[in-house]
Fold:
Amino acid sequence: NTHGLYEASLRFRLLRQHGYNISPDVFNKFKDEEGSFMSDLKGDVEGLLSLYNAAYLGTHGETILDEAISFTRSILTSMLSDLEPPLLSKVSLSLETPLFRRTKRLLTRNYISIYQEDATRNDVLLELAKLDFNLVQSLHREELKSLSM
Structure:
């Protein structure tokens, strides 16, 4: 009850990705009396993006997640022209293809360039991510080379 939209969505997405059958009712607190998502959520771009990505982990019959997809997609699409570069890149990438439907290595490559634009980035962490990506890419090249011989 004390968590905002971003935290609730992130927790929901991570638990669902790891096989836990968490109820989508956690998002009911973000709905108004009429049953639609609250209009004041429009100011929380990170929360909306997190909800958008989490909602794609829904199963058949979870109407609240279907509503969340349409609600967040329309708001995020309308906000694209007002967003700054790091957040703009994240939102555009997610609207193109939701987070969990992307190949992890390609997502990593895209996210490194997005994180590089972030003013609050941790340069040591960024350098470590680049080194890891390049190391794994080099390993994949060597494996492909040995397979093709």
